[in-house]
Amino acid sequence: MDHAFGISAGTAILLLLAIGLALSFEFVNGFHDTANAVATVIYTKALRPWQAVIWSGGWNLIGVLISSGAVAFGILALLPVELVLNVGSGAGFAMVFSLLVSAIIWNLGTWYFGLPASSSHTLIGAIMGVGLANSVLSPGHVFGEGVNWGKVSDTGKALLFSPIIGFAVSAVLLVASKAVLKKHPELFKPPEGDAPPTPWIRGLLILTCTGVSFSHGSNDGQKGMGLIMLILIGILPGVFAVNPSLGGAALQAFTASSQSAQSVIERHVPIGERGANALLASTSAGSVVTGKTTNDVALSAYLKASGKADARTWSALAAVNLALVHTVASVKSLGDLPQSQRKELRSDAYLVGSSLAKLQSQHLITATEATTLSSYRKLLTQVTNFIPLWVKISVAICLGLGTMIGWKRIVVTVGERIGKAHLTYGQGASAELVAWGTIQAADTFGLPVSTTHVLSSGVAGTMAANGSGVQGSTIRSIVLAWLLTLPVCVFLGSLLFAGGLLLLARMGIH
After folding, report:
1. Whole-prediction pTM value?
2. By residue range, what is the domain housing residue 378?
3. CB 115 within 8 A of CB 474
4. Does residue 81 lie in a domain region?
């Protein structure tokens, strides 16, 4: 029996289950990561706990709603190409479920013991596990080919350096504040009893809490949005594969840019291959797809870690992009495209954009060509990287609710167990200002960072700078959790992916 969207009852159940798991991940993320944002205002008595979690939850919600989506689709770039292009298959379902279940398991475990671990690390470890398992289980693959190591390296650097930045810059900021604000010694004292701080200090701490909460929503909230979009695109490509609202002047600009990019690409197609592309250029848009499967295979092979550019790569890229040019030029709005063509267009855009990015990173094009192709790649994201408002609202609500419900364990660790002395107002403000700035910068560049890592290390940095000392046992536990997160989640992701493939195959889903 098929539903209104043309999917079977079994697929509809898997779709709802997958979206439910993605929202559960964000709920856990709320009380696991966002709790860091409220720790300082609670322990400096700037806000009562119930006020802090409601305030923080609200600003997380706002951060999610106005987020750009760059981090969401940056996370998806870590996944194996063949799984991203075939999410509606059994392997695609196994990938989504293994990612989410392994991330939720580790987040719940570390939260239970009050350890501020990173949801970003957790998810990326699970993605690596899926990629490695896929390279082992797929015929003809070399071990490790299923992981986008370049993107993993960029993300890993962001996750590695962000806590170092948090520790060092927070320490420097506290020392500088003491030197500049000598007339305000009350800023560098711990709270006395249950009395709130003076109004200006209270305002400062609420401002920093607001900034961290907003930044967390705009960065961490995107991870759940990206996974939900991956699910929707794979199962309902006719509805969610491309941005249906793209039209008018924006689509005209895209068409012009795609044609300029096509000219650049064709310059690199060897003479012996140009005849086939000229033939494609002279055909109608409908027949351009002839032979497309082999071109897709060629580009997918190039996008693997071991893939190298050759004559076939450029020829395939020219052919796939030409098909894309014809498809887009044939309509006034992407909403006018038949649903059957939308998945094809998304696949083309994904392969072309990813291939161009790799060619540029390998310096296989000139500086002038790079300018043209970089502009085109940005416009390609407008075709594929869109997030419906209802997805943002759903994620925002789950993130906010999670913040309001399960905050206490992590807050106690950050507020009481990192330093040997009570957190002062200045320490709380310094740590949160640095966390706010670091997360906002990462959001701008589309990089996922850990709110937990930045803020926890920031608090430790201020304790060290203040001469308060840190509690060695707590720091060791936190560092151990950080070190174990990636390997444990790689193992969980690979194990659950392999088990999921077997289970879905027995259910007849391939």
Report:
1. 0.77
2. 243-384
3. no
4. yes
